[in-house]
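Hi V.,

You were right to ask for the full record rather than a summary. Here it is.
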Amino acid sequence: MTTFLFLMIYPKEFSATSIVDARKVYTYEDFQEDVWILKSKYKKQLQVHTIGKSEFGRKIYAIQMGKGEKSILLSGAHHGREWITSLLTMKMAEDIAVKMKNGDNFLGSYSIWIVPMINPDGVTIQQGKINKFPFFSKRKIKKMNDDLEDFTRWKSNGLGVDLNRQYPAGWEHLEDSKKEPSYKNYKGKAPFEAEEVQAIVKLTEKIKPTIAVAYHSSGQEIFWQFNNGVNEERDRTIAEVLAKETGYDLGIPPKEAIGGGFTDWFITTYHLPAFTIEICPLVEERNPSLTNFAEAWERNQTIPRTLIEEAKKIDAVHKKMLGDK
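Predicted structure:
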């Protein structure tokens, strides 16, 4: 049934030549291979940048679609058990490359930057491949998992730091943080401590995207609020556009959700819109089933195009404001 749904959503001519295979568990090795195949096949449509390495030396890649100075940023897999978002964002990269090669230049003067797998160590651990880590590190990883052999619930990076609790917006108020490295919810000793977070932050500071989206995997909601201030109406309007397009609910952050995430940091640092998009039905302490992928793709495949259109509106307003001064 899953394969049938998958083929119904992807036209035959596309699926027959598809590089990214969304029908199986998506490993770091699969991701790394797909990145370089995309680069080889779509030389004129995309560029691949190594923006950093994980704590255990796995490369973190950013895929740049287009060459415009203005940009939007999409990311996936802050959390190990959310590797389905790596599949989604890689499929987006491939889909955009195909469209560009066929003459659809919807990017215009913009670039789309995609960082599909921010946390390759966490993904590798969550998929049960701890033999790929050094001997003493394996012992520590198992201890951080409460000595359980099943790593299905793993969210953190290889050192037990929850990457989406590593950003300084509200970091000091994360009172429910674990007190020591763990499979989830340990915020670290200081913001920006983790190598993986440093990589995405440096990229963000370099490209200065007009809009950023962090894809997560559980709840089918869109979160957009964090001290938006005077930009509240603007950001809500874009969130409503995304909600209508995807069919996801607009999330209301719980009272204990007081920051530490990439979206929170981006909003407060740049005073520009950022969104956390949860793509699958709610699951607890595990990765979503791949049977959810076809629906997630159908809901999200046009989001890059929509974000470009919304970014144009924001940049036009900024340009007019500068012109009026």
